[in-house]
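Today's session is about reading a structure prediction critically. Students often jump straight to the picture, but the first step is always the sequence itself: look for stretches that repeat, for charged clusters, for runs of hydrophobic residues. Only then move on to the predicted structure, which in these notes is written as discrete structure tokens rather than atom positions. Here is the chain we will use throughout the hour.
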Amino acid sequence: MMSAARKNPQLALGDFLGASAELKSKIQAIAHELLLDAGDHGVGFDEVRHAAETRGLLTGHEAARFLSFGSSLMKAAGGVAVRYRRSRHASAQRRRVAVYVHKSFIDALSS
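Below is the predicted structure for this chain, in token form.
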């Protein structure tokens, strides 16, 4: 049976660090911005994490916990997982990460 958090990414995102709604919306906005900028090339949530760290939104413990909720955040920002690759950022320890493309670019990938 599928969990409620899997059915509704906003539910899982609501648990994200027990963080304020303002922090969640700022990180989701970064994810949305990066998804649109990347076009059909896509973006991994490691890149969103890196952007949030660079802008001072995530530090220390928060940055480590971010990986747990990255997929929910990307889905809530309009992303659809299309493939996997190795992380480009040392902070994510070169893990295998999903590459997300904004749902508005999905048709471009299939043609």
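Discussion point for the tutorial: Residues 6 and 12 are 8 Å apart (CA to CA).
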